[in-house]
Amino acid sequence: MMEINQIPEKGDDAAPYGPTLLRMLIIQRHWQKFTAFESQFRRAAAELAEREDEPRLRKVTVSRRQFERWYAGKVKTEPYPDACRVLEHMFGWPVQQLLAPVSDTPESAETGGIIIPQHRVSSRLISIGGMLELPLNSPVADDNIIMASEWPVWFGTRLAHLIALIDNWRGPASELDSLQTLLHQEILMFDTSAPESPYGLRMVHALSRRQALTTVAALPLVLATSSAISESGRSAAAATDFFLSRCAASLTACWHLLRGSDLSTVDHTLSSYLLALEGAARRQSRYQVGAARLASQAHRIAGIVALHRNQIQVRERHCKQALYYATVAGDSSSQASALISLASTYFYNSDPAQAATIYEQVFALGADMSALQRSRVHAELAVVYGQLRKERDAIRSSGLAGELYPDHPEQDRSFLYAEFTPASLSLEQGLAYVALAEQYPDRDYKRKAADIFASVERSRSAVPDRIRFEIINHQARTAVLLDDLDAFETYISRGLDGVVLLGSKQRRREMMTALQRARSAWRNERRIRSLGEMLQLTAGDNSKESG
């Protein structure tokens, strides 16, 4: 179904394709399943045939493979003219723009981060409320355009206030966690101020929030070298105070950015000053404890990024460095978080026995751990106990995790860096029952897992993008256990969006694992083959990786 009109391509053919406007509009309208898209395509063809008085247009159809290529962005030439007309009728955009990467469409050009052409708000692909969103083609009423323009002003004012607070911080370096707590509360105010509607205002708020966080995250870069410190005109002591307060602020912003889809932004920013921060953490001085505590956080964040690049050994090194600096700082809470991160590394590397050993070491820290951290240890230990066929231990640990989880986790002293939201608790409890279901297939653990995962969708709590898509991937895995092919197709289709949003090889690896199990459960099923091909196309992967 190809015509000769060539669509220009960028870069190497093996590189991942940027999401196209067509893909983003399909996601917005929840037409990711072929059956849903095909139904809408047929309806649009019938409408166009009637409007143009051309009955032959009713016969224009789309094949599953053609849809997969359109959705993945792997289209080198335009479809036949009649198919182009149907697509343009469906979405209201020229086909050249529909099949081009989002950032290449004229309407996605940004002016100061915001543009409102013809009463429409437009931007690049972003995440709003934890969901993959394309704020293109979103009408904004006249009385809301002025409101939309106020958000950048509001965030600019708040940003100036935060920078003044950071640069005028006079507390001792050993108490920089107080500065982080204060900044964390300020950033939470950003989130509570978000408008629930209309859509265009939510988008402008999300863009302005992200820009503010990115600015705070980049604050240490100016003072990340000794030459920069000497040129600043400050004494060495004053410059170190200044640098560490900015590092504390940057790490706070990075933790919040990690709840979205900004893995690359975080990695680039953090790598620019990590060596300088480690230097302060290794030198014996009055700054060492505070710097070491911050360095421990920095390595844990770097370990999260490494995980999503599928660099398990790099993550392991970062987690061990996080533990080293937490020990230098003499901070039991940081030690607990570092040990948990190290243990989870072995879980992701399919070594539950080693993971269990490390998790159990955390309990030696005793009362120095916060309730939130104790809940996380029990929750993640339940998963590896399930994998190790320790049925009673897994069920007991999962229950304890729920009992220990605070009613108001945001008030826990470790909430910022504990990386354990209510959705994270549900993820681990669900995974524990998935592990039990795979070890004991004759028992009803798989239904329990499905119910726990589904509870996240009903929750009103914010769900970080990384956690949301990890849950979706494991919902697909659970659908295989439940022999529910329709549910599997739905979850895998949604999981594909996470691969694009996060650029995460770890999330893709989880999807490949789910597909492997689906192929074993539903041999020769055409839909499974199509989903596998779509994943390959979406990732732009021409390798021979099996899945």
Q: Strands, helices and their partners?
A:
Blueprint: E1 2-6, H1 21-28, H2 34-52, H3 64-72, E2 77-79, H4 81-91, H5 95-98, E3 120-121, E4 126-128, E5 131-133, E6 138-139, H6 142-167, H7 176-192, H8 199-217, H9 226-231, H10 236-257, H11 263-271, H12 274-282, H13 288-308, H14 312-329, H15 332-348, H16 352-362, H17 371-387, H18 391-404, H19 415-418, H20 422-439, H21 445-458, H22 465-481, H23 485-502, H24 505-521, H25 526-539
Antiparallel strand pairs: 1-2, 3-6, 4-5
Helix pairs in contact: 2-4, 3-25, 6-8, 7-10, 8-10, 10-11, 10-13, 11-13, 12-13, 13-14, 13-15, 14-15, 15-16, 15-17, 16-17, 17-18, 17-20, 18-20, 20-21, 20-22, 21-22, 22-23, 22-24, 23-24, 23-25, 24-25
